[in-house]
Amino acid sequence: MPKLPEEHQSVNPETSKPGSLVEGKQSPPLHVVEAGSLAGVQAAMAELCQREATVKDRLNVLVASQYDLKRSLARLDISRANLGSQAVSTRAISNTMLSNAATTARRLSAAVSRLDLEQARVKGTLDVVEQIAELKTCVLGVTGSMGAAQDWEAAATYLKRASKIPSEVVNGAFAEETVPTSEVPDPPKVTLDQAAESLQGLFLREFERAAEENNGSRVTRFFKLFPLIGKSDVGLDVYGRYVCQGVATRARSNLNAGAGGSQSTEGFFYANALTKLFEHIAQIVEHHSGLVELHYGAGRMVRVIERLQIEADVQGGIIIDTWSDERSIDRKLTDIRSYAFNFLVQSFLPIQPARSGTPRAASPSNRSTSRDSRVQSEEAIDTKEIDALLSEMTTMAARWSLYRRFITLQCKVWRRSVLR
For residues 161 and 163, what is the distance between their CA atoms, to the nearest angstrom? Predict the structure, then answer.
């Protein structure tokens, strides 16, 4: 009889199940062809029957699930058919309705873009036309105000308005063709520049005349006009010279008030003169900064302070030099450097022994000599006068430190306002 395959081989269900051990060893499968007895053949047949039953059970399970599988496949076929019809309908809608809608949307988008472009061009053209009209108004207004009317505020205001117009419009060919008239034939740029230079010279003359006449209202009037014509630096410079002249005049007046009199010999006359100088400059900075910032912008007072500081150095130097000459500071320094400190030196020297023919150390003659040298030293240097000078110098240094802190604080405040 031929040998069965391994999957049809069986083992004794009682003693040799797959994976079981007999006396520590795995028993080999029992084959019908190898059975040597009836019992072995029956055991092999029983094993085969058992395996047949297991296979039949698995086949029955598969057969039972085949119905569900066929039903699921049928549902999938139905869904595929439905999806196919939906895809056909979707492609039909896309090719008919959505295609037309997309085409229409693209056409509308292009039309809107063209409309926006045309609108922007029209708006730009209107802006240029308005700017040209404003430029022409400013040119005619400047020339008219500087004519018989001599309305300098109006002329400066027209120049301020013209400065807000873009330079490409002012220098453009369209402005050069449309703005000039028979009364003003020059290009607008030339006319405005000439008007600004003419007004600058006029404002400078009027400002200096008002300063000479000490007319504060006219000084303020023309000082406010410089930024309107674009000459802010010129206005700040001339204003700085004006306030510096006031500082110099008052400083000389305070210094000359005590010159040649008893006041200059007082202990704190020059310290008071220096204090008045610093107080005057601080008052100018505090009271005039509002006007400068209002018409010239935040932080522009620093330019005036720079000129004031130069004048403060000049006037303060004059006061210090006069004080040095009046108090003979150089001579006193020379005397102090050459002071021998005889009395102090003698106090450290050993006492000389008494000798014959010479007076004793404690004799009246020695005391007289020591007293004479001390009197001469005290006459050469007056300690009370040195103390007064030191007090006056300390007062000057304290006033300068206070003034410096004030100016530094003001400049920091203006710098922060500009950075904002």
Answer: 5
Report how far Cα 252 is from the mean position of its chain's Cα atoms. 43
Q: Band the pLDDT of 92: cuts 50, 70, 90.
A: confident
SS percent in the chain: helix, strand, coil, step 5:
75, 0, 20
- Alpha-carbon distance of 122 to 133, in angstroms, equals 16
Distance CA 290, CA 100 (A): 69
Helix (H, G, I), strand (E, B) or coil at 25: strand
How do residues 282-328 score in pLDDT, each as one tens digit? Answer: 999 999 998 999 999 888 899 999 999 999 999 999 999 998 888 88
Separation between Cα atoms, residue 360 and residue 165, nearest integer Å? 104
Neighbouring residues of 280: CB distance < 8 A, sequence distance ≥ 6 = 247, 250, 251
How many residues would you count in the chain?
A: 420
Tell me whether residue 147 is exposed, middle or buried, using C-beta atoms within 10 angstroms of its C-beta: 0 to 12, 13 to 18, 19 or more: exposed
Whether 17 and 35 have beta carbons less than 8 Å apart is answered as no
CA proximity to 278, closest of 315, 243, 238, 226: 315
Output the pLDDT for position 292. 92
Provide the 10 A C-beta neighbour count for residue 377.
Answer: 15
25 DSSP β-pair partners: 22
| Alpha-helical runs (H) found in 297-382 | 301-326, 329-337, 342-348, 364-380
* CA–CA dist 164, 154 (Å, integer): 16
Query: Residue 395 burial by CB count (10 A; 0-12/13-18/19+): exposed, middle or buried?
Result: middle
Burial class (CB in 10 A: 0-12, 13-18, 19+), 366: middle
Asked whether the predicted pLDDT for residue 265 surpasses 90, the reply is: no
Averaged pLDDT, 375-399:
78
Phi, psi of 14 (to 5 degrees): -90, -35
Q: Is the pLDDT of residue 410 over 70?
A: yes
